[in-house]
Design a protein that fits this description.
CATH superfamily: RutC-like
Shape: globular
Order of helices and strands: EEEHEHEE
CATH class: Alpha Beta
Number of domains: 1
Number of helices: 2
CATH topology: 60s Ribosomal Protein L30, Chain: A
Distance between the termini: 14 Å
Strand order of the largest sheet: 1-2-3-6-4-5
CATH architecture: 2-Layer Sandwich
Structural class: alpha+beta
Amino acid sequence: MQQSIEIEGFSHLNPIPAASRVGPLVETSIIGPFDPGSRNVPENLESQLDNIFHHVEAILTAAGGTWTDIVKMNFYVGDLALRAAINGPWLERFPQAEHRPARHTQVMEMSGPAQVTCVFTAYIAD
């Protein structure tokens, strides 16, 4: 049975959860770079990435998982040149090359000051 995953300080404008879980599979909705607890998007990319990785960790925790349960992360950026900026926080969470999830970065039209968003898939065994 499907279980909606919600986290404190993060919500969508539409009636969709932060993530959904069926058995061990967890899929997120889009994770925006909002400051926790608000719809404010910081101007600088580093703060936006900090917010995204904060929300990812909160979703993982709410679903009963950890960073090691992520199978794939997809990042969407306004400019492909921003892809390199993701590497810093990525390597902090996944320092061992042999234990990293798959990752893809794709250009997508962004609105407002947002420069990056992401989604992820996790497999969290009971």
